[in-house]
Design goal:
Rossmann fold; alpha/beta; 10-stranded mixed sheet; 20 strands
């Protein structure tokens, strides 16, 4: 190992943190992984590993702030002094003693770096990205697949933190490595596309990918390219009798989705029309339950439109609602009528076959486009899809194969305050999804506005660029003060990742997407190997 400094003797060294002096001819920066040895009287050697989290430079011997000018003019002989602070990550064997002043501090590389960051003990690991010096940073898959933990939460400013891009990169690393083995053929991911049509091109190579970026994928053990197996679903167009997808920039390979009136009633989807309900919760929920129960037993074979179904409900509401107060019935009816226009085109009369169904089993990655829908309709689609998924996984009685669910704008669907059916589904996913094999990769701008139990159940916590005021909330207490400050200046492509085994969060960089994120990036079809020039 290369020596980069010596433990300071002017500052107390402790078992869990210490300072070391850096000579002028060495470069030490934040995130460097270091090691120092301590010999004990019983002939044992203790290896103390850590990560540099602070670097300070000053004039040694200066007493006044103005001394810097005298030193610059050569009047006052002062030397530069650089020191670095280390947060200890691992001690082997576990004899917690401080390093001695004057001990050599070395940069940990190879097997020692793996030991310092617990990579050596990860039985199944997947790429989180690279460090700033290009070394791979691994995640322990046992804390993602439900074995020891599950779920990922990503926070960051919209458009800068690249939350969805990092979520898709994680999926790419999981699906396109040898991690899953035989399970890979049946493992699935469902991505809700909530903004723009960027995620509708995951199966297209990115024509803007450069050779150096392709090389970064190779460093991570991946081959740069698009997702190999993608199914894309978009909502059916409003007012069309033929089931055509409502998309703008992609015309091929997209399936239109909707639900039949019979499915809506039989599977009790009514509750998701009220997914923004945050007042009159208990009384309104009781009315919804009663009406759902009545619809489940009602013969709706003759109903051709959602409007007719609404008329049926309103006609029988007095008897179906039981003893509900008039105000509660009025609130129910008011919300139902509002949903009729926003969601009605997604619920049709008689539908032939299963062409309208969102079949997330068909391809490895399923993208469900909801970005053009009203917020009420977005909540309906998310709630219905997740409800069906949970019921199917519960019926199977097995957590395998895994299903990853990527959902951005989590603060809309599982807010800290209030109640809604979709919030219940997401909360259930965060608490029971681990045992069912349903893994949530959720993202939002502000974790402080999310239901605490959703965030608290996530084994992996990721932050991109953060508003500094937001970074001071309790939800980011897992970040040391220096990491909170760094989160305010992170560039796109950089995130800070916390995972259970590693005591401190690590800065992670991930490569530019190898798949198209907009129509202009989509490489022309028919190219057998669009990245061949990068591999030669």
């Amino acid at each position: 190992m290369k020596e980069i400094g010596k433990v300071l003797g002017t500052v107390d060294a402790q078992p869990l943190d210490y300072w070391f002096a850096v000579p002028d001819d060495n470069l030490v920066q934040l995130d460097d992984v270091v090691a120092v040895e301590r010999s004990l009287r019983d002939s044992r050697n203790v290896s103390i590993y850590g990560v540099v989290d602070t670097v300070i430079a000053r004039h040694e011997g200066a007493k006044l702030e103005s001394d810097v000018f005298l030193a610059h003019q050569g009047i006052l002989p002062l030397n530069h002094a650089v020191k670095a602070h280390v947060m200890v990550t691992r001690v082997e064997p576990e004899v917690f003693v401080p390093p001695l002043p004057g001990a050599a501090v070395c940069k940990a590389e190879g097997a020692q770096r793996d030991q310092a960051l617990f990579f050596d003990s990860m039985k199944k690991r997947f790429p989180l990205g690279t460090s700033r010096d290009g070394e791979v940073i691994h995640g322990n898959f046992e804390f993602l697949d439900g074995t020891r933990g599950a779920h990922v939460n990503i926070s960051g400013i919209s458009g800068v933190a690249t939350k969805t891009t990092y979520a898709t990169f994680l999926l790419y690393g999981i699906f396109h490595s040898n991690l899953l083995g035989a399970e890979g053929a049946n493992t699935r991911a469902v991505i809700f596309n909530v903004k723009g049509e960027d995620l509708l091109f995951l199966d297209k190579p990115n024509r803007e990918l450069k050779s150096e970026t392709a090389a970064r994928y190779e460093t991570l053990g991946l081959t740069a390219g698009p997702f190999e197996s993608v199914g894309i679903f978009a909502p059916v167009r409003r007012g069309e009798t033929v089931l055509l997808p409502d998309v703008g920039t992609r015309s091929q390979g997209v399936t239109a989705y909707c639900w039949s009136v019979e499915e809506f009633c039989r599977e009790r989807f009514l509750r998701f029309l009220f997914a923004d309900a945050d007042q009159e919760t208990s009384h309104l929920a009781a009315v919804i339950d009663r009406v759902e129960a009545q619809l489940a037993n009602e013969d709706v074979s003759s109903i051709a439109t959602f409007k007719e179904l609404v008329e049926l409900i309103e006609l029988n509401l007095d008897s179906w609602a039981g003893t509900a107060a008039p105000g509660t019935r009025a609130a129910f009816q008011r919300r139902l009528e509002a949903a009729s226009y926003r969601v009605g085109h997604l619920i049709r009369g008689k539908l032939q076959g299963d062409a309208h169904r969102i079949d997330w089993h068909r391809e490895q990655v399923t993208v469900i486009d909801i970005h053009n829908l009203h917020d009420r309709a977005k909540r309906f689609v998310i709630g219905v899809v997740l409800k069906r998924m949970f019921e199917e996984k519960e019926a199977s009685g097995s957590a395998r194969p895994l299903v990853f669910v990527v959902l951005d704008e989590l603060n809309k669907y599982a807010p800290r305050e209030g109640w809604s059916p979709i919030k219940d589904v997401i909360l259930d996913m965060s608490e029971r999804g681990r045992s069912l094999g349903v893994i949530l990769i959720g993202a939002q701008q502000t974790a402080s506005q999310i239901e605490p139990r959703v965030v608290g159940n996530c084994a992996f916590r990721v932050v991109g660029r953060l508003d500094l005021a937001e970074a001071q909330h309790h939800e980011y207490s897992f970040l040391p003060a220096v990491s909170r400050a760094r989160a305010g200046i992170l560039k796109p492509g950089s995130v800070i990742v916390s995972q259970p085994e590693i005591p401190i969060p690590l800065l992670v960089q991930f490569p530019f997407p190898a798949w198209a994120t907009r129509p202009s990036e989509a490489a022309e079809s028919g190219l057998a190997d669009p990245f061949g020039k990068f591999r030669s």
